[in-house]
Write a structure and sequence with these properties.
Elements lengths: L3 H5 L1 H4 L2 H6 L2 E8 L17 H14 L5 E8 L13 H22 L6 E5 L2 H14 L3 E2 L1 H4 L4 E5 L8 E5 L11 H4 L1 H4 L17
Parallel strand pairs: 1-2, 2-3
Antiparallel strand pairs: 4-5, 5-6
Helix pairs in contact: 4-5
Length: about 210
């Protein structure tokens, strides 16, 4: 797996003809979105929000001819502060949208017409809530326990010239059965349900 430094310096490492020949890209970005501004991550460089935004700005220009893009966002992605615990759904979504998903939306809007297959994976601790929201909104949700398909949901995108949205798959499985019921909410309560329970995949039990 290429380091973040190597990813960001690809235009210096490869000649333009090589970059233009790339049609499919899979990237992993390990970060701490709720790291206090000005602080350095204890486990990884380029883990702050400014570096994440630079990464998102980099993608559309670095790979001009790709047709398929897969990005997995992972790392220490919890730790946001809320007015109460557990936070109200509206407050949680407001924080996650502003910090993670809206910047991703803006990056997807910048991708050229040639990019037809886009997936931005998020950890199970966030995916659990976003999947429930997608089901409530009537967006397409594909679930492993029902069809054996990749666990993912569709995220519609407004004001985008070339596409109507993109896929958000389940990425890093950062939930564990040892977490408290308060943290896992419904996922923990269903842990000992049937073998086809929809939350088993979030805990790595599929």
């Amino acid at each position: 797996m290429a380091s973040k430094e190597m990813i960001m310096h690809l235009p210096r490492l490869l000649i333009p003809q090589r970059l233009e020949a790339i049609t499919s890209v899979e990237l992993l970005w390990d970060w701490e979105p709720f790291l206090q501004r000005g602080k350095t991550s204890a486990f990884s460089p380029r883990s702050d929000c400014d570096s994440f935004q630079a990464f998102l700005d980099f993608i559309p220009t670095a790979f001009p001819k790709i047709r398929s893009l897969y990005v997995s966002l992972q790392g220490k992605m919890n730790g946001y502060k809320t007015s109460q615990y557990p936070p109200e759904p509206e407050e949680r979504f407001g924080i996650l949208e502003k910090t993670i998903m809206i910047p991703v939306d803006n990056m997807v809007r910048m991708l050229g017409v040639n990019v037809q297959d886009i997936s931005i994976a998020i950890p199970s601790s966030h995916y659990y809530h976003y999947r429930s929201y997608a089901q409530t909104m009537g967006w397409t949700v594909e679930q492993t326990h029902k069809t054996g398909q990749l666990e993912r949901h569709w995220r519609p995108l407004a004001d985008c010239q070339f596409r109507s949205g993109y896929w958000v798959p389940l990425g890093q499985k950062d939930l564990r059965p040892t977490y408290t019921p308060l943290v896992l909410e419904g996922a923990y309560r269903n842990l000992y349900g049937s073998e086809e329970d929809e939350d088993h995949v979030l805990l790595g039990l599929d």
